[in-house]
Amino acid sequence: MQEVIYGCMGLGGSWSGEPHGAHHVDQAAAAVQAALDAGITMFDHADIYRTGKSEAVFGEVLAAEPGLRERIRLQTKCGIRLNERGLQTHYDLSREAILERVNGSLERLRTDYVDILLLHRPDPLADPAEVASAVGQLMAEGKVRELGVSNMSAAQIEVLQDRLETPIVANQLEMSLLKRAWLESQVLVNHPEHLDYSFPHGTLEFCTRNNITLQAYGSLAKGVYTGAEQDNPTSAEAATAELVAELAGEYSTTGEAVLLGWLMKHPAGISPVIGTVNPDRISACADAARMAKALTRADWYKLWITARGSNIP
User: Fold this and answer.
1) Which residues contact 263 (CB under 8 A, 6 or more apart)?
2) Which of 43, 58, 222, 254 has its CA 20 to 30 A from that of 37?
3) Interval 97-121 mean pLDDT
């Protein structure tokens, strides 16, 4: 199902261990309402976002509005540990860690289940059989309804899927007009320039063939093309920002909707994840689906070629 997803990483205050305040809950409530008003009903979390505070403030929003949980879908992620055991970052998709982290997320979110659990990053030490055992238990207990992954290649998904009894339904990757490795890898096959891009070729095609929804984080390109202040924008970034504004005017819409529509026009059925906490900017995304249909093939290619700063082969 293609849709715009609201990413909750910006909610909850700082990344430090200090607790969130009432104003952070108010900020979360305003963001959630703006998302709902824009037609967004899918909300994306991770256990590490703001050291758990993103989930916690969202849980307070849910608790304050009876019936809201039934109107939305929630997903969260596990698999990354921060500042533990003398390590700034390490990955942990052991059976025990998956169970522990999901239960912690449910407690913070104040809900009995998440609609989708995403495995946040590939863990080289993960045993697919252990992962399958943990996921199977969570599903049997009604705590997780579907499973997805994040930052994984086609080959990694295949190995994991071999041991699972449930289909992987989503793969969340960094994809935008600014971060274009996913697109460049499609067209630079048999071209020397393909070495400049590390995105695993074939992953988009694999996900499409297996009905795995592609979720694009960073989809608004951090505002580079829609007014974010930059000290030294490149000529390509400046030209693209001008083009985005021109198209927004031509189609009577917003720059944000142009960027999301550009992603959603791709036949892989990409679902953009937006991460802004600004209610006005959330509202600016409401026209994305219309723009996916309205942008012409020439518009789509012009945006891509302008953003890359050189013509395609």
Assistant:
1) 175, 176, 177, 216, 219, 270, 272, 292
2) 222
3) 98
The total domain count for the chain is 1
Residues tagged active-site: 49
So what's the pLDDT on residue 307? 98
247-257 pLDDT tens trace: 999 999 999 99
Identify the CA nearest to 42 among candidates 130, 115, 118: 115
58 SS3 class: helix
Which uninterrupted H or E stretch holds 105? Answer: helix 95-109
C-alpha distance from residue 168 to each of 40, 158, 161, 208, 301 (Å): 22, 9, 7, 12, 31
- Identify any residues that bridge with 217 across adjacent strands, giving them in sequence order: 174
Structure tokens at 186: 């499609």
CATH number for the domain harbouring residue 82: 3.20.20.100
Range of the domain at 53: 5-174
d(CA 215, CA 60): 26
Tens-place pLDDT, residues 121-139: 999 999 999 999 999 999 9
Residue whose entry in the numeric block shows the structure tokens 């289940």? 113
pLDDT-derived band at 229, boundaries 50, 70, 90:
confident
Check whether 68 has a pLDDT greater than 80. Answer: yes
3-state SS, 176-202, equals CCCCCHHHHHHHCCCCHHHHHCCCCCC
- In the block, tokens 């026209």 appear at 287
The verdict on residue 13 lying in a domain is yes
- CA gap 10, 297 in Å, rounded: 34
- Cβ atoms within 10 Å, residue 279: 17
User: How many whole angstroms separate alpha carbon 258 and alpha carbon 300?
Assistant: 10
268 confidence band (pLDDT: 50, 70, 90): very high
The rounded mean pLDDT for the chain is 96
